[in-house]
Structure formats: C-alpha cells, structure tokens
Amino acid sequence: MQEKLVILGGGESGVGAALLGKKEGFRVFLSDRGKLKEEYRTKLMDNGIEFEEEKHTDSKIFNADLVIKSPGIPKKSELIQKLKEKQIPVVSEIEFASRYTLAKIIAVTGSNGKTTTTSLIHHILTEAGLNVGMGGNIGKSFAELVVNDEYDFYVLEISSFQLDDVVSFKPYIAILLNITPDHLDQYDYKLELYAQSKFKITENQSHEDYFVYNFDDDNITELLKEINTEAQKVPYSMNKELNDGTFQEGENVVVNFPDRLELNASEFALRGRHNVSNTMAAATAANILKIRKETIKRSLFDFKAVEHRLESVLKIGGIEFINDSKATNVNATYYALESMNAPTVWIVGGTDKGNDYAELIPLVKKKVKAIVCLGLDNSKILAAFDGLVDNMIETKSMQDAVRSAYMYGGKGDAVLLSPACASFDLFKNYEDRGDQFKKEVKNL
Start and end of every Mur ligase central domain (predicted)? Predict the structure, then answer.
C-alpha cells in the first residue's frame, strides 16, 4: 500500500515537495490555509496531485504517514502540536529532498549574508564547470531540483525554520555565517534556542564532512564548546591569524585549508566589511572542493551582487541610490550602514520584529544626514533616533519616501533603502519593496 504524504503549505517548498513525493511513489495530499498562487495551483493540477486551499481538513491530514511542513508554519501551531501528539513524523522539505539525492550538498545558514554567500559559491562552482544547482531559501525549492536530480552538487540557502525540522540532513560542507537576534518570537525570545536551531546544520555530519564557521562570532564559538560535531572544523576570521582556516592579513585574505590560497580583498566584487567575511566563507568552501585557484580569484572579482542586497540602482544628480530591501533586521542594516562611504539619507521602517535600534546609533551619528521613515507605525524609529540627525520625516508610500530622500540628498551623497524591518505593512514582500524603490528612483 502506498504511504500517504501530507504537505502543509502550498508555496515554493510545499509544491516542490509534492512533486518529489509523487515521483517517489507516495500518495500525496497538499493542504494550505491560504489561497494558492495560480502557478502553484496549475503545477499541482497538471501533475494530478490532490490539494485543498483556504482550509485544513483534519480527517485528510491526520491519516498521514509523513508530514512535510512549510517553514512559514510556526512549530507551536495547534495543528503541528496535534500531529506530534499523534506521533506522526513532521519534517522539512529540505530533510525530505535530501533523502533522494546522492549529490554533494553545500549548505549555508546564518542570520545575515546567506543569499549573497550561497549565490557567490554557486557562481564559483559554475565558473569551474561543475554541474551545480542552487535552491532552498533562494530560487527553486531543493525538492523540485531533486525531482530530476541532474546535478552533482547543490548549494542551498537554509533558514533556521527549515533546520528546525531536519532529522538526517547531512551536508558535505555546512557553513554558519553568524548568529544575531532574528525571528526570536518563534524561539520563546531566547537567542540560545534560535542558535541551537542554526547548529542543526552540522549535527549529522561525519568526519568526512566540513563545518565552516565564523570564528569572530561569539555566539558561534561559545556554542561550539557545548555542541559536538564530528565534522572537520574550518574557521574563518577577520581578526585572528588561523593555521587551519581563513584569515585577513592587511589587504590580503589567506585561505589556509586544505592548502594555501592568497586573495587580494581590494579586488572582491562585493562592497562592505561584512562582505569580506561572506567572501571568506565562500572561498574556503571552494578551496575545500579543490577548485582551481585562478577560477576562485576570477569568480570573486566578477561576481554580480544579489538583487535587493546593497544593489546600486542609479546615480541621479550625483546621488547614488542603493537598494538593500533584503535587510529585514537590525543586524543586516548595521552592515549596510557600516559599508557606506558617502553622507547617507537612510530610508528605514516597516513591520517591527521586536527590534532594538540602539546598536545603530553610533553609525547613524557618523554616517547619516537624514532619515526617511517608511511604514505604517514609525514611532519606535522616531523615538530611537530623535535628535541624532537634522532631518527626519515620516512617509507612507515608496513614492513619497524616494522623493523626500532625493530632496534631502546632495551631490556626492547616497540614498540607502535598508529598512531593518519586515515589509508586510505596505508591501507583499521585500522583493516588492525593492522593486518599487527601483521604479520610483527611475521615475525621478
């Protein structure tokens, strides 16, 4: 008898899991409490997969042999708790997909820099002529890539929510970039619980695998004392020389594992100190994979920045407009402000996730000449930065925000959209917010 696979959530990961489940001989049922996008509905119908939308029918869910849950469904939700009580296994789409491929997996997690680092590694491996797919939290779902399983390598961006529900997921190279407060509302407001979920990326690794981690991140190094991993540990640091790792030495970055590779940091395509750190992680992974040194150097030089992440849009009237819409938390915005070399008009705001803006104050004093708030409720931002800049204004639309920022800017200045908040008060998602920013800049 066919095993029944129930998928909760009909977004990118859910539909990918449904397609893979069907291919692997499961009886698949997909359930989404919301309305499905047209493209996903069509995919399910074309593949003869049973589904429901705008409801969850208990009788069709609780007879499952295995449940795959969307990363967006909180693990504390009543439905998930009931499944656990009934001892029905619940896993993530990342876990499920990993069971059906023998390809080598390079998995990237962290609070910030995941998309950039994943894209950079994919770029290096592609330039090296390797047969490589990219997915997870970026682009296509891992499960959909595995349906045809035509790749020898997968580079995956993975969130803490995806890692919460892994059981045997085992990357060949696991990369942990940083751990800073984010999504704490889902982890009882305890940083250590959030950090532990990030560390699940390495828990199934063996001594033949590699765990690449940021030695400069205190949360990581402290937890490494408690959490046992069998993997070969390869640290990278901007502050300390490392014998078996990667470190910065003046203008150079030295990759010291498994053999020596010297890189000129001033030639890196990505801007900002935090991106030197991300580039170190990517170069370390590439060196472990024994990619030719010249290919690594060339790839780091000609990489194009990820859309919505410190993306230079246009220069108008001598003012550079920069789209960093993907900065949905304070730490990401910290990195963005830190990388600014021109007087900056900062567009900030959106749905607050329990943000503490205090760490941004020194950078605002040093780099920011005006603040444009963009959100339905800007009270926390107004209170945090009151008196620190000459001009601060509230706006409720992207058009007003961009026009106000242009008014405050002058030749040689920069306008930076780096919201430090989620986008859901005024926009569909951070991509929509970034696209609207670019459109309004072009309309100036």
Answer: 108-286
197 in a known ligand binding site: no
Is 410 annotated as belonging to a binding site? Answer: no
Task: Name the pTM for this structure.
Answer: 0.79
C-alpha–C-alpha distance, residues 334 and 288, integer Å: 30
Residue 245 is assigned to a ligand binding site: no
Using a pLDDT cut of 90, give the percent of the chain over it: 75
Determine if residue 328 is labeled as part of a ligand binding site. Answer: no
The annotation status of 240 as a binding-site residue, yes or no, is no
Render pLDDT for 431-444 as a digit per residue (tens, 0 to 9): 999 999 999 999 99
H or E stretch at 210: strand 210-214
Question: Domain 311-442 maps to which CATH number in 3.30.70.920, 3.90.190.20, 3.40.30.20, 3.10.20.30?
Answer: 3.90.190.20
Q: Is 434 annotated as a binding residue?
A: no
* Cα distance from N-terminal residue to C-terminal residue, the chain: 63
258 preceded by a cis bond (ω within 30 of 0):
yes
Whether 101 has a binding-site annotation, put simply, is: no
